[in-house]
Design a protein that fits this description.
The chain is an alpha/beta fold. Helices cover 31% and strands 29% of the residues. The chain has a domain of 99 residues. The chain is built from two helices and 16 strands. The N and C termini lie far apart (70 Å).
Length: 167
């Protein structure tokens, strides 16, 4: 019992020290993750990474890393910048005048609208059209369904009784 108390106290102290050190020294993450709401990075604001489910991302400031939007759009306004990649599933990307994306832009099921003065440091990959999104959802479900059907078939085959048909 004494050993368990010491282990618990040690774990508690380590947790407190880790929490205080990140808060004290400013190492707290500036990542944003949002479900069902838009994410807006204001002018002069800096964020490390953004992930948004069911909402759009509007960048007026600077995102140091990647931006991911699932079921929404990514808009990089004038003087806005993304240091990493921009990935969008089921939405589009709009790059306004003087907008910058340092990495790749990948779009599944949407379009890109881009001002000629905007900059993209990497590749632009666009899987536009309405077929890609259902296909991305359907293929894994079909694969999982086939595995479940195989398991059911194997269980039924192995559990069959050796009953002999009457003559």
């Amino acid at each position: 019992m004494r050993i368990q108390s010491c282990l618990f106290a040690g774990l508690l102290v380590c947790t407190l020290v880790a929490g205080l050190s990140s808060a004290t020294f400013g190492q707290a993450s500036h990542e944003r993750t949002q479900f069902g709401h838009d994410v807006i990075v204001g002018p002069g604001e800096e964020v490390s990474e953004i992930t948004c489910f069911g909402g759009s991302v509007r960048v007026r400031g600077h995102v140091a890393g990647d931006v991911v939007a699932i079921g929404g759009n990514v808009v990089v306004e004038e003087d806005g910048s993304v240091g990493g990649d921009a990935t969008v599933f089921g939405g589009g990307v709009r790059l306004e005048k003087t907008a910058k994306i340092g990495g790749d832009v990948t779009i599944f099921g949407g379009n890109i609208r881009r001002d000629p003065e905007s900059q993209v440091g990497g590749d632009i990959t666009n899987f536009s059209g309405g077929l890609w999104l259902p296909l991305m959802v359907a293929l894994p479900l079909i694969f999982i369904g086939a595995i479940v059907a195989l398991i059911i078939w194997l269980v039924r085959r192995l559990t069959r009784t050796g009953a002999v048909a009457p003559a």
